[in-house]
Amino acid sequence: MKAHKIIKSKIKKTFPLKQDSFLSHHVPELHWFSTKSLKRMVESYPQIYVKPNRGRKGIGISRVKQLSESEYELSYGNTNKRVSYPELVKELNRRFVPGKSYLVQQGIDLATVNGCPFHIRVVMQKPMDIWRLTVTSAIVAKRKDAVVTNVARGNTEFPMVQVLKNCDQKLNPMNMIREIVDLSHQM
Ligand SMILES: Nc1ncnc2c1ncn2[C@@H]1O[C@H](COP(=O)(O)OP(=O)(O)O)[C@@H](O)[C@H]1O
Ligand SMILES: [Mg+2]
Q1: Rounded Cα distance, 124 and 25, in Å
Q2: Which ligand lies nearest to the CA atom of residue 27 in the structure?
Q3: pLDDT (tens digit, 9 = 90+) per residue, 16-58?
Q4: pLDDT at 1
Q5: Single pTM value for the model
Q6: Tens-digit pLDDT profile for residues 147-162
Q7: Structural domain boundaries in the chain
Q8: Which strands make up the sheet holding 116-125, listed edge to edge?
Q9: Residue 56: CB within 6 Å of ligand 1?
Q10: How large is the angle between the packed helices 85-95 and 35-44, nearest 10 degrees?
Q11: 124 — phi, psi (to 5°)?
Q12: 82, 71 in Cβ contact below 8 A?
């Protein structure tokens, strides 16, 4: 079997999803980080994420929420800070690793189970020229206000169905699974 090429660049792998009329509605807005794009994004969304383009394991990711006209909440790891806009720019730049490119992304209000946010992991494989969904799981944050839900950051993986049955969404689990499977194949 031929090993597949892993595309690390988040901007590169987001592009074809944005081009697809069906998938584009499911993909948060994403731009290269700059003082200009940051300003525009914090003005457009209640929360935004700043992350390395070639990142992994939830490393170097920050979340920004606007608290008032002039105050922002900057969160990363277990840290939460109230900052002004100039302080926000300074703090974000201070956290950047030299030589790495960064992105600013529309924040998603993640679904929760017992108040803790989670993300769904889907693995697809193409053993005989047909794409098959081979693994699914849900990774639940250990804290209600967690910035990232990666297993590598101490969060826990559960069977997807178990989490969907107990989560805060109105849609029933069967319909959620159907949508997840559909979207995965479309991708
Ligand atoms: N735009 C976003 N909205 C909400 N949560 C996010 C967003 N971006 C990242 N996260 C949180 O951070 C985690 C890691 O982000 P991700 O982009 O997958 O980077 P990595 O490649 O380091 O895993 C996600 O699983 C999610 O919990
Ligand atoms: Mg990830």
Answers
A1: 21
A2: 1
A3: 999 999 999 999 999 999 999 999 999 999 999 999 999 999 9
A4: 60
A5: 0.96
A6: 999 999 999 999 999 9
A7: 10-106, 112-186
A8: 112-113, 116-125, 132-140, 156-158
A9: yes
A10: 120
A11: -115, 140
A12: yes
Ligand 1: residue whose CA is nearest its atom 14:
58
Residue 22 Cα to ligand 2 middle (Å): 22
Three-class DSSP labels, the chain = CCCCCCCCCHHHHHHHHHHCCCCHHHCCCEEECCHHHHHHHHHHCCEEEEEECCCCCCCCCEEEEECCCCCEEEEECCEEEEECHHHHHHHHHHHCCCCCCEEEEECCCCCEECCEEEEEEEEEECCCCCCEEEEEEEEECCCCCCCCCCHHHCCEEECHHHHHHHCCCCCCHHHHHHHHHHHHHHC
Order of strands across the sheet that contains 102-106: 30-32, 102-106, 47-52, 62-66, 72-76, 79-83
Q: What is the mean pLDDT of residues 1-17?
A: 89
Pull the structure tokens for residue 127: 């053993």
In this prediction, residue 36 carries a pLDDT of: 97
pLDDT at 91: 98
The answer, yes or no, to whether any atom of ligand 1 lies below 6 A from the CB of 141, is: no
β-bridge partners, 47? 65
